[in-house]
Design goal:
The complex is a heterodimer of chains A (about 775) and B (about 350). Chain A has about 775 residues and is of the alpha+beta class. Chain A is about 25% helix and about 25% strand. Chain A folds into 6 domains: about 70 residues, Phenylalanyl-tRNA Synthetase, Chain B, domain 1 (2-Layer Sandwich); about 110 residues, OB fold (Dihydrolipoamide Acetyltransferase, E2P) (Beta Barrel), CATH 2.40.50; about 200 residues, Phenylalanyl-trna Synthetase, Chain B, domain 3 (Phenylalanyl-tRNA Synthetase, Chain B, domain 3); about 70 residues, Phenylalanyl-tRNA Synthetase, Chain B, domain 1 (2-Layer Sandwich), CATH 3.30.56.10; about 170 residues, BirA Bifunctional Protein, domain 2, CATH 3.30.930; about 90 residues, Ferrodoxin-fold anticodon-binding domain (Alpha-Beta Plaits), CATH 3.30.70.380. Chain B is about 40% helix and about 20% strand. The chains are: A alpha+beta (about 775), B alpha+beta (about 350). The complex binds zinc ion.
């Protein structure tokens, strides 16, 4: 919302500096993006250089066919000689002049006395565009001949204005109008708010007008007014200046008036060329299947039965609240106008706007919810202006409206405000604030909400906010007075941090990859019905896909020693309801299977869980793979990336279930261990891990550690067999193990492995 | 030693003994030589110790103990001197200490994780629990229970990823407010960091996937002043002890009153710079007093329980604090970027 300050001042008196006003509005009402200047800068005495001039002489420039050479009286002793490029005036015309020293709009360019093709030009005659008042219509701006030369231009033309650029919140439709902002400014500054503008013009006839609303829910009010003898033309400069200042484009007086009143009061209007209305009727209804409408922007639109349309006797002539149709557009030949001042329900307008990909000034207001009572005020004000500025004669009116809702009445406790803010606010202040905002407050604190706030103030807490927002700057800084303190990380949260730190310590970088991926190995992965792109269409069931593309990105960037991990959710579809979202740990790294396996072992070791690997092909592209409790490890086959790559993924909550509640001390200090290296010859198919597990099981309590040393094939080992060597340590917490103990334990192990795996001890 | 052993018990001889011992001690060039000298002149079988054993009168005792004390000091001094010589010899070997040490491999936590943990720790310190919320939410959790208007634009399929008509990818972390209040009996103090999703086309400041941190406090007598004090602690922890905060009016469906928080610019300390758009204040995000209807939606009595809530963007905090211009960098996982933090 762009608010020309001169316009604002028309509705409210205030003495604050603009910067201060903007600063305070930010706390109480609306964001203020910035204050900008439209038109002539108001710095120093710059405005003095802009004056009314009367052209005394005008003729062709002696040295240039396209230029005029003029003498202009600007109220000084001698007329000034000015060269001008426009030809829409002659001697006697009253014009706007800037004399040397004047700084033009934008602040970049200063007018200087200079020679143009040999003739002195001692100033410049101005056009509307140069003053940022609108587009040029082929020449300079002509002023009323009643004006005296030398009159300050600012007294007769809005040469410049300060513009407040606001960002109105969604819950404040009342702040989408200058008058609504003025009401807020009046409360804030204590300035006086003037009555809402608009007085009814004389009504010259009582022509019948047929208006029907078939959907009162979507259009609870429709006022139609007829105007004859309308003269469509240019708007006066002041009106254009305001329209431009508010960020819109002047079009014609009739259209500008509807826009002006919308900006002033917040209730959008529309003007139809009445003669082009079939049967001269208005029907507000849903569109029917197959109906179409070319809107004012020149686009032909297929209408949807959900669209609310304004129709005449035959066809749609507007999409309600969104945009009018070209078929009834007001143009130069229009002489009779049907003015629409209506009310549309927000959701209908929102959906139509979405459906047709449109965004108009009126739409943004309807979407926030406009006070239906404003339609009447808007009709009045627009009628006044149509009569004054377009010669319109008011010749008929009809209105249809739904039942009026009684204004909300809310029981309010001033103490509630203090409980919310944590700040004392005097009852008198609360009452005064509410009354200034237009609320009616009874002696026993029954609060009646004004119609323009009916949508967002419905409950006691909403009333609290109305008082509270004016005191936000005074709220103290406290902390909750706690009766209980119980903040700590949950077990699994601590473990998650722990394994993240282990991996970082092991040289891994943590990655964040997208939850939505272009592909997923699980065909049942949830697919978004309307994805943003094909690259982000599936809710992943594994971290591997994203990590692989992160690895690729790093290879492409020329990075080396790539090791990435991620801790994040995956999304596993479930029967009915939302998917299950377990936490996963995924990793990818340069190196073979054993590189990834080492990382997984480090994680398990940190968690005090003994990993058990079993050969498997856990993922599609794996050449070597294994499952481990809660996940998998694999070496990728060719990926089109240099070298070998491996990956792993673990489901953390499952893994955390295996973590021992507490670790008990074992005495490994008091008595020395007894160490043996044992090598067994076994069939090729026997996994080393199973041999180690069997050693552990056979030796029982006295086994302190068993560590894989090597596997060997070749000399002295028969074909189809291999030799696997372990370093084994026995230890007792009660005594020093003797050589006899060593021999006994060794025999137990050898026998166990012999009977289970047909293993023979290698000499 | 034989010559020494022959000496008699008079002052002059002991002066010579001491001088001889000193010469031997000072001549030692290694710990072994020093030890040999010590054994010869101060050891159990040395002339001095033998003589001490035979001492009967106080005067001789003082004399001999004096000699022994001085020589022991001399040994200790020589020992220190020898060590010094060793250090000097080693330092002379010309090692270039500026050459890098043996590499110890080390990775990095992602910057967003570092910040998330920092935030968690601030709130853990204030007695909050950390909540892990699902990213897929029901429409009820994400919108309805938070009293979002059925016509609110954020519900549109242009803004929100729907899985079906009842299920969305959460558009904010606020559904965790609802889940936490349903799962716990107040008092309830929680923060919930996590991924959120909106249909924004990716650019430098927008991403369809982003991180938020939600904070919810529910207790008796919670005020906006408590909210402001809490946010102050939070921002001071993240942006420095000198920071100040302010609240501006705002609008969110699930808080009433709703406010927007600003923090004083930590780059220019409020004087005005490009980061704070010359205002001295940086916008941090939305917050407010929990709307009584939200409590009603989770069967809590708003007359008994009050609360505040906020949701701030984690990327925004990271970008502001570390000067990253483009949030897409967070999702590219380039080691050259990750390695900086
Ligand atoms: Zn700054």
């Amino acid at each position: 919302m762009k608010v020309p300050v001169s316009w604002l001042r028309e509705y409210v008196d205030f003495s604050w500096r603009l910067e201060e006003l903007a600063r305070r509005l930010v706390f109480t009402s609306t964001e203020v993006d910035r204050i900008v200047r439209r038109g002539v800068p108001d710095t120093g005495d710059n405005l003095k250089h802009f004056v009314v001039g009367r052209v005394l002489e005008a003729g062709k420039h002696p040295n240039a066919d396209k230029l005029q050479l003029t003498k202009v009286d600007v109220g000084e002793a001698e007329p000034r000689s000015i060269v001008c490029g426009a030809w829409n005036f002659g001697a006697g015309a009253t014009v706007a002049v800037v004399v040397p020293g004047g700084v033009m709009p934008g602040g970049e360019f200063t007018i200087e006395k200079r020679k143009l093709r040999g003739e002195v030009s001692d100033g410049m005659i101005l056009s509307e565009r140069e003053l940022e008042l609108g587009q040029d219509h082929g020449g300079i701006m002509l002023l009323s001949d009643e004006l005296e030369p030398g009159t300050p231009l600012a007294d007769v033309v809005p040469v410049g204005d300060d513009i407040l650029e606001l960002e109105t919140l969604n819950n404040r439709p009342d702040l989408t109008s200058i008058y609504g902002i003025a009401r807020e400014v009046a409360v804030l500054t204590g300035g006086e708010l003037r009555p809402m503008p608009g007085t009814e013009p004389e009504r010259v006839a009582d022509e019948p007008l047929d208006i029907r609303i078939e959907d009162l829910e979507r259009c609870p009010r429709y006022i139609g007014r007829l105007f004859g003898d309308v003269q469509v033309g240019d708007s006066p400069a002041w009106l254009k200046a305001r329209i431009v200042g508010a960020g819109m484009r002047p079009i014609s007086n009739v259209v500008d008036i509807t826009n002006y009143v919308m900006l002033a009061l917040g209730s959008p209007l529309h003007a139809f060329d009445y003669e082009r209305l079939a049967e001269g009727r208005i029907v507000v209804r849903r569109a029917t299947q197959g109906e179409a409408l070319e809107t004012l922007d020149g686009t032909a639109r297929e209408l949807d039965p959900e669209d609310l349309v304004i129709a005449d006797g035959e066809r749609p002539i507007a999409i309600g609240g969104v945009m009018g149709g070209a078929n009834t557009e007001v143009g130069e030949s229009t002489t009779s106008v049907l003015l629409e001042a209506a009310n549309f329900e927000p959701l209908t307008v929102l959906r139509s706007g979405e459906r047709h990909h449109m965004r108009t000034e009126s739409q943004t207001r309807w979407e926030k919810g406009v006070d239906p009572e404003l339609a009447g005020a808007a009709a009045t004000y627009a009628s006044q202006l149509l009569a004054e500025l377009a010669g319109g004669r008011w010749s008929g009116e009809a209105e249809v409206r739904a039942d009026v809702h009684a204004p909300a009445n809310i029981a309010f406790r001033p103490a509630y405000t203090e409980a919310v803010l944590g700040l004392e606010v005097a009852e008198a202040e609360q009452r005064e604030r509410l009354e200034q905002l237009g609320f009616d407050v009874s002696a026993d604190w029954q609060v009646t909400v004004p119609t323009w706030r009916a949508r967002d103030v419905r409950r006691e807490i909403d009333v609290v906010e109305e008082v509270a927002r004016f005191r936000l700057e005074d709220v103290p800084l406290t902390l909750p007075r706690r009766q209980a303190m119980f903040g700590r990380l949950k077990h699994e949260q601590r473990l998650r941090r722990g394994i993240e730190d282990v991996l970082v310590g092991a040289g891994f970088y943590e990655a964040y990859t997208y939850s939505l991926q272009p592909s997923d190995p699980d065909p049942s992965a949830i697919e978004l019905p309307v994805p943003l792109s094909s690259q982000q269409r599936l809710l992943r069931t594994t971290l591997a896909v994203g990590l692989l593309s992160a690895a690729r990105h790093n290879v492409d960037s020329g990075n080396e020693r790539i090791r990435l991990f991620e801790v994040a959710h995956v999304y596993l579809p479930q029967q009915g309801g939302v998917p299950r979202e377990p936490w996963r740990l995924g990793g990818i790294l340069q190196g073979d299977f054993f590189a990834a396996k080492g990382a997984v072992e480090a994680v398990f070791s940190a968690l005090q869980v003994e990993p058990r690997f079993e050969r498997a092909r856990p993922i599609e592209q794996a050449t070597v793979g294994a499952t481990v409790q809660s996940g998998w490890v694999a070496q990728y086959g060719p990926l089109g990336l240099d070298g070998e790559w491996s990956a792993f993924e673990l489901e953390l909550d499952e893994l955390f279930m295996l973590v021992p509640e507490r670790v008990l001390y074992r005495d490994v200090v008091s008595y020395p261990p007894l160490r043996l290296d044992l090598a067994f010859v076994v069939d090729e198919g026997v996994p080393a891990g199973e041999l180690a597990a069997a050693i552990r099981e056979a030796a029982g309590e006295e086994l302190q550690a068993v560590r894989f040393l090597s596997d060997y094939r070749g000399d002295q080992i028969p074909d189809g067999k291999k030799s696997i060597a372990f370093a084994v340590a026995f230890q007792s917490a009660q005594r020093t193990l003797s050589d006899e103990d060593g021999a006994r334990l060794r025999n137990v192990v050898v026998e166990a492995l012999g009977s289970r795996f047909d293993a023979s001890l290698r000499a | 030693m034989d010559s020494v052993a022959a000496m008699s018990l008079d002052d002059a001889n002991w002066t010579a003994y001491e001088a001889g011992a000193r010469a031997a001690i000072d001549a030692a060039l290694s710990d072994a030589e020093l030890d040999a000298a010590r054994v010869a002149w101060l050891g159990r079988k040395s002339e001095l110790v033998q003589a001490l054993r035979g001492v009967r009168d106080r005067e001789s005792g003082m004399l001999l103990n004096g000699v022994r004390g001085r020589l022991e000091t001399a040994v200790a001094e020589r020992e220190t001197a020898l060590q010094q010589l060793l250090w000097e010899a080693a330092a002379d070997s010309g090692v270039d200490v500026t050459i890098p040490g043996l590499p110890v491999e080390r990775g990095r936590l992602h910057l967003l994780t570092q910040i998330r943990r920092e935030i968690e720790d601030v709130f853990l310190g204030m007695g909050y629990e950390v909540w892990d919320g699902n990213e897929v939410a029901t429409v009820w959790e994400n919108f309805d229970a938070l009293t979002s208007d059925p016509g609110h634009p954020s519900r549109s399929i242009n803004d929100t990823f729907y899985i079906d008509s009842d299920t969305v990818l959460r558009t904010h972390t606020s559904p965790d407010q609802i889940r936490a209040m349903l799962a716990r009996t107040p008092p309830l103090y929680m923060v919930s960091p996590g991924r959120c999703y909106r249909r924004d086309t990716p650019d430098a400041t927008h991403s369809p996937i982003f991180l938020q941190v939600e904070c919810l406090a529910v207790d008796r007598g919670i005020t906006l002043a408590d909210l402001q004090g809490t946010v102050l602690q939070f921002f001071r922890a993240l942006f420095g002890e000198d920071r100040e905060v302010r609240m501006r009016t705002s609008f969110f469906p699930f808080t009433e009153p709703s406010v927007e928080f600003d923090v004083t610019c930590f780059i220019c300390s409020g004087r005005g710079c490009a980061t704070c758009k010359r205002s001295g204040w940086i916008e941090m995000g939305g917050a407010g007093w929990v709307d009584p209807d939200v409590f009603r939606n989770v069967d809590l009595d708003p007359d008994e329980w009050q609360g505040f809530a906020f949701g701030f963007g984690i990327e925004r905090i990271a970008m502001l604090r570390h000067g990253l211009p483009d949030l897409r960098a967070f999702w590219e996982n380039d080691l050259r970027v990750l390695g900086q933090f």
